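Homework help board

Subject: predicted structure for assignment chain

Our instructor gave us this sequence and asked us to write out the predicted structure in token form, then describe one feature. I got the tokens but I'm not sure how to describe them. Can anyone check?
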Amino acid sequence: MSAGPPAGTPVLSIEALTKRYGDLVAIDDVTLEADGGILGLVGANGAGKATLYRSLLHLVPFRPRSIRAARHAVRRHA
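My token output:
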């Protein structure tokens, strides 16, 4: 039996993720898929890299069903 997702399934999928802090848009409509391996984010200071990581780690709330891990929705716990 395989412990991972079916072949061809992205291990991480983010669809149209937007995160705002009041009027400040930290992440605007980010969409990406990662098939495995090592993934890094490069960008200027204030580009939203840390906010994206914090969303993945459930440290900041995000729009439901916008992040999927191996086809399962990642949701913020209340």
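Reply (TA_rk): Your tokens look well-formed. For the description, you could write something like this. The mean pLDDT is 81. That's the kind of observation they're looking for.
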